[in-house]
């Protein structure tokens, strides 16, 4: 393989490793000599790749944004552009600006062929629709509570406009075609619930963080949703 392809392959291999991996293991996987591997590691590090190495332990790719030239092919570029433009259409102002900024950063590091795929994509998102219901509580308030794992007390109205007060553990925001929803654990119901963000009349921080890890709670909710879908479409054998 070419040197450029080899360097990108090495990056992909390191991305897939959860723990440090020795030079001998990497060299064997790439079918190159250890001497070549050391040279490739040094070149990637000089280009800004956050590769950390320790004698007797191995190499690991630390977290951090690193997009070298030629990293994305045309299909990968179009997939990213489609996703970012979808976010620009259906996200809030904060995510819309973030999508535009991310697109500009990606364009700056693409090679000419991939950049042409960015400027003239073969795939496009559908119509933006007619907008979303107005939120009383800014989505950024909910997003911040999610990131900090903070409990929230909310005033909420259901589809029949019946008001209630809830103490919830916010887990994620969902951006659907016509509405936005907040996925949360509801202490009142003792179960996972989704709340339309435009029906949240007020939200205030409760004392302390909610227990457990958000990622674990979100995974449990996703598994529950999958089980519900499976039961929904499984024929009754009785």
UniProtKB/TrEMBL annotation:
Residue intervals of the Helix-turn-helix type domain: 6-59
InterPro entries assigned: CBASS_pafABC_assoc_protein, HTH_11, WYL_dom
Signal peptide from the UniProt entry: none
Residue ranges occupied by any WYL domain in the UniProt entry: 139-204
Segments forming a coiled coil: none
Pfam families per the UniProt record, alphabetical: HTH_11 (PF08279), WYL (PF13280)
Domain of life: Bacteria
Name of this chain's protein: YafY family transcriptional regulator
């Amino acid at each position: 393989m070419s040197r450029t392809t080899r360097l990108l392959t090495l990056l992909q291999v390191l991305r897939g490793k959860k723990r440090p991996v020795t030079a001998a293991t990497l060299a064997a996987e790439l079918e190159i000599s250890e001497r070549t591997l050391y040279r490739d590691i040094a070149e990637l590090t000089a280009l800004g790749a956050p590769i950390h190495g320790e004698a007797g332990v191995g190499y690991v790719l630390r977290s951090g944004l690193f997009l070298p030239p030629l990293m994305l092919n045309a299909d990968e570029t179009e997939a990213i552009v489609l996703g970012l433009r979808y976010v620009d259409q259906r996200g809030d102002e904060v995510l819309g600006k973030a999508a535009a900024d991310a697109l500009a950063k990606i364009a700056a590091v693409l090679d000419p062929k991939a950049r042409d795929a960015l400027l003239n994509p073969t795939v496009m998102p559908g119509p933006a629709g007619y907008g979303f219901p107005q939120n009383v509580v800014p989505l950024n308030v909910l997003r911040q509570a999610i990131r900090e794992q903070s409990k929230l007390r909310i005033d909420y109205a259901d589809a029949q406009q019946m008001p209630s007060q809830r103490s919830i553990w916010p887990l994620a925001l969902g951006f659907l075609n016509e509405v936005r929803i907040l996925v949360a654990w509801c202490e009142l119901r003792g179960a996972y619930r989704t709340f339309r963000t435009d029906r949240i009349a007020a939200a205030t921080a409760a004392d302390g963080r909610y227990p457990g890890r958000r990622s674990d709670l979100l995974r449990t909710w996703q598994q529950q949703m999958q089980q519900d879908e499976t039961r929904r479409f499984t024929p009754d054998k009785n």
